[in-house]
Specification:
The chain is an alpha+beta fold. It folds into 2 domains: 137 residues; 157 residues, Aminopeptidase, CATH 3.40.630.30. The protein is built from 11 helices and 13 strands. The chain starts with 5 loop residues before the first strand and ends with a helix. This is GNAT family N-acetyltransferase.
Length: 310
């Protein structure tokens, strides 16, 4: 159901200049909504809801299953939703909500600004943001005792932290330490993302090594005034536990003046959340929405149909 105030535009008919102008000037900008990024993670399968003359935009990635179209959240894409360069009314916001409720939604997220300023739909999810707009010594002083202890241990390792262009070593570490990831269909997609990030200078792969041993990586994606930690991998031996804290401290000490925040991309997982919060990161919420006619229900119907044929 379309509102007279909004219209849906397919990816191929998108006015890229107007879309980019809205996003780049948005008060709630997210790199996940960049055209180049969505084209990678959604494989160019996305539409966009437009309000006015691209005053408000809402990218809608989709997939087909059994010839039926579903709005679905791509991998490596935490927050989408509505983007705008000035505050919008609840009335305008609700036109978009009415539209998405009328569609089959396997999964979609609304960014934290949407959640904080408008009646939201879906379940709240936790993200973690660390402000790094103070001197490094001040930030580190607020670390939990365990993190401070790990930082001292990492200094004894005498490791080296540097930006790496060798993504093969990163994937080698993933293959050795997280074997199940190699079977994940998103494994190849991550390689494409890293290649594009490096090519377009919109992030970097940070490597922690001890002599010739690469033991920890963080993939950083730039999001205007913050760094998003998009992916990570490390050796699981206890000896290397402290290297994760060391990499975070390196980012705090060596960030450029315009970088004000580190975005940990979650998490609702208790262990990960405890680590993030022990560094001083604060929770920030977005929402995940899916409606009742889900992909899983359709799959069950399809399987029942196959059994009937047998």
């Amino acid at each position: 159901m379309n509102s007279p105030l909004i219209r849906k535009i397919s990816r191929q008919n998108l006015d890229e200049i107007k879309y980019n102008n809205c996003l780049q000037n948005a008060i709630n900008y997210q790199v996940y909504a960049e055209i180049w990024y969505l084209d990678i993670v959604a494989e160019k399968k996305w539409d966009c809801l437009i309000y006015g003359d691209y005053e408000v935009i809402m990218p809608l990635p989709f997939q087909y299953f059994l010839f039926i179209k579903f709005i679905t959240l791509p991998p490596f894409c935490q927050q989408l939703g509505l983007f705008y360069n000035t505050t919008i009314t609840d009335s305008v916001f609700n036109h978009f909500i009415t539209y998405i409720k009328s569609k089959r939604v396997r999964g979609y997220t609304f960014n934290h600004h949407n959640v904080n300023n408008h009646p939201f739909i879906g379940n709240k999810c936790k993200n973690h943001i660390l402000s790094i707009d103070n001197p490094a010594e001040v930030i580190i002083q607020k670390f939990a005792r365990d993190r401070k202890r790990e930082l001292k241990k990492s200094e004894q390792l005498k490791g080296n932290i540097q930006v790496s262009q060798n993504i093969n070593m990163f994937f080698s570490l993933i293959a050795n330490e997280y074997n199940y990831v190699r079977k994940n269909k998103h494994y190849a997609l991550l390689r494409t993302i890293i290649t594009s990030i490096q090519k377009n200078n919109v992030g970097f792969l940070l490597e922690y090594s001890i002599q010739d041993i690469q033991c920890n990586y963080r993939l950083i994606l730039k999001n205007k005034n913050k760094f998003i930690i998009l992916a990570s991998a490390r050796k699981k031996e206890k000896l290397y536990n402290s290297t994760s804290t060391a990499i975070i401290v390196h980012l705090i000490k060596n960030n450029s003046p315009e970088i004000k925040y580190l975005d940990f991309e979650g998490s609702d997982l208790s262990g990960v959340a405890a680590f993030n919060e022990s560094l001083g990161a604060k929770p920030e919420f977005y929402t995940f929405y899916k409606n009742s006619f889900s992909h899983d229900k359709l799959l069950n119907i399809y399987n029942k149909f196959l059994r009937l044929k047998l």
